[in-house]
Amino acid sequence: MIRTAALVFVRDCALLLVRPAGKTAFYMPGGKIEHHESPLTALNREVREELGSVAVPPITHLCDIIAQAYGEPQGVLVRMACFTASLESPPRPCAEIAEIGWFTAADYRLQPDRAPAVEELFKHPALLSTIKTGRLGEIE
Question: What dotted CATH number matches 2-132?
């Protein structure tokens, strides 16, 4: 199982997603947890690398999602530890990220290529109740 940490950041009832260069699907900002890292350490590293920002405490665990790993052979699963946080500055594409986007569940279903873990997250009760409020996390 691939262990990852991901940022859940909501604006105007839409979830922030990223698309790496050379990929067609948008998925959660975040990435693999290295063997020497905690999920929070990985999250902070990935937010800096991918979004050019810093996750501002409090950083709160929202949920874990287990799903087929995008781009991996059938049966390879990802365990995505999802966290909420504010950001120190507006997110922007950095490093391997070619594009950022804001998606509702309906918007994401229209994408020709989708990551199973993101599809599962859009169904999760913790995210559904959060999206209804319109915002999760602030830009400080």
Answer: 3.90.79.10
Q: How far apart are CA 95 and CA 131, in angstroms?
A: 28
Question: Domain extents for the chain?
Answer: 2-132
Are 80 and 6 in contact by the 8 Å Cβ rule? The answer is: yes
pTM for the whole thing? Answer: 0.92
pLDDT in tens, 86-139: 999 999 999 999 999 999 999 999 999 999 999 999 999 888 766 666 556 656
- How far apart (Å, rounded) are the C-alpha atoms in residues 114 and 42? 23
Q: What are phi and psi of 46, to 5 degrees?
A: -70, -40
